[in-house]
């Protein structure tokens, strides 16, 4: 079985959830010696690109970032004289009679939260990839439901839910966070990821500012508007800290030392930080919507509104009860066992084999 991977996501993102998923899949493909080729590889802009460990003979040209940004919306028109699986990292497909196209659909954020030309182009590309795919992978039941909501014409027999995993870099430990942030264990609440509007960063700031806890932000540096907003609510710089982009080891330490992860995002295709935190023994306060109830397991710390910070503050107070907090941590550790990148890899290979056996070479 020949597999061709379109690695274009590593050009489109500096870092991000889809890059993590693609990195974890490819690492296992390479390690297990499958018959594969990687197309659209670039050495620019993404530390997860794996170009250093992909053998040269497995790379089909090394493209410049400028070139790849130009072709990102185009189908792959190269014709091959053999049957192969074509799995794109970001909504491209092979326009070849011998290709068996697999598309992974992560979420419908663009359709729900973006406007204008950017939304239209993305939605056009995604719909086109889904239409031309032999099988579609959805990363949660919620994403699958959204797929049928936006593309009701999709054949249900072609859709398979394969959950994302969680890195083994996350585990319970006793490492000190003092060399990463200026706060002590259990004195801060953690916010991880993008600060797009639907992620409710502003709500996080307002809620934490009303408690005794500090706020640690992991992600891009604060822009001027965000910094002014945080200062307006916290009054003192000593109560918040932006750790910016950090590696998994440092993030695991922050999860282990945090009082809780606050994750009030209104929409997630999966929500990897939820499982990372649980695996590291960190309670998660999250919004009761999209894929989160499906992923998080226990619903004790789910909030039902993002219109006010009161619900968040009530959940924070709830886990100030040590016995209840320990019970939630134990449930989270058990829940995190449902997800692994090895399981994702095995289920993806099973789908490849199904697709391969169901399609004859033309």
Number of domains: 2
Order of helices and strands: EHHEEHEEHHEHEEHEHEHEHEHEHHH
Quaternary structure type: single chain
CATH architecture of the largest domain: 3-Layer(aba) Sandwich
Number of strands: 13
The CATH topology assignment of the largest domain is Rossmann fold
Q: Counting H and I runs of at least 4 residues, what is the number of helices?
A: 14
Radius of gyration (CA) equals 21 Å
Describe the main β-sheet briefly.
Answer: 7 strands, parallel
Please indicate the percent range of residues in DSSP E strands (runs of 2 or more). 15-25%
Please give the structural blueprint.
Layout lengths: L2 E4 L2 H4 L4 H15 L4 E6 L17 E4 L2 H7 L12 E5 L10 E7 L3 H5 L2 H16 L3 E4 L2 H10 L8 E3 L26 E5 L8 H9 L4 E5 L5 H11 L5 E5 L3 H10 L2 E4 L8 H8 L4 E4 L4 H5 L5 E2 L6 H9 L3 H15 L4 H18 L4
């Amino acid at each position: 079985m020949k597999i061709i991977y379109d690695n274009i996501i590593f050009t489109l993102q500096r870092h991000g959830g889809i890059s993590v998923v693609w990195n974890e899949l490819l690492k296992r493909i390479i390690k297990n010696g499958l018959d594969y080729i990687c197309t659209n590889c670039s050495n620019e802009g993404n530390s997860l690109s794996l170009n250093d460990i992909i053998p040269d003979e497995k790379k089909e040209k090394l493209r410049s970032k400028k070139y790849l940004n130009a072709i990102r919306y185009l189908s792959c028109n190269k014709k091959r004289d053999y049957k192969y699986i074509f799995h794109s990292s970001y909504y491209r497909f092979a326009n070849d009679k011998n290709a068996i196209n697999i598309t992974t659909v992560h979420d419908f954020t663009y359709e729900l939260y973006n406007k204008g030309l950017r939304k239209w182009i993305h939605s056009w590309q995604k719909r086109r990839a889904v239409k031309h795919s032999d099988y579609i992978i959805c990363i949660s039941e919620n994403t699958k439901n959204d797929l049928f909501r936006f593309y009701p014409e999709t054949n249900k027999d072609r859709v398979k839910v394969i959950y994302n995993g969680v890195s083994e870099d996350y585990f319970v430990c006793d490492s000190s966070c003092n060399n990463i942030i200026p706060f002590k264990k259990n004195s801060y609440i953690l916010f991880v990821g993008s600060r797009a509007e639907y992620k409710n960063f502003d709500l996080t700031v307002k809620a934490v500012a009303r408690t005794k806890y500090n706020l640690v932000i992991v992600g891009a540096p604060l822009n001027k508007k965000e910094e002014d907003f945080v200062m307006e609510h916290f009054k003192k710089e000593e109560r918040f800290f932006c750790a910016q982009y950090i590696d998994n080891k440092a993030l695991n330490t922050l999860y282990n030392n945090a009082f809780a992860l606050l994750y009030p995002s209104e929409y997630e295709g999966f929500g990897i930080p939820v499982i990372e935190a649980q695996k590291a023994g960190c309670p998660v306060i999250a919004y009761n919507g999209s894929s989160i109830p499906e992923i998080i397991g226990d619903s004790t710390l789910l909030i039902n509104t993002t219109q006010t910070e009161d619900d968040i503050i009530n959940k924070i107070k709830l886990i100030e009860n040590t016995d209840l907090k320990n019970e939630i941590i134990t449930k989270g550790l058990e829940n995190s066992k449902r997800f692994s990148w090895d399981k994702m890899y095995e289920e993806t290979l099973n789908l490849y084999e199904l697709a391969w056996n169901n399609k004859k070479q033309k």
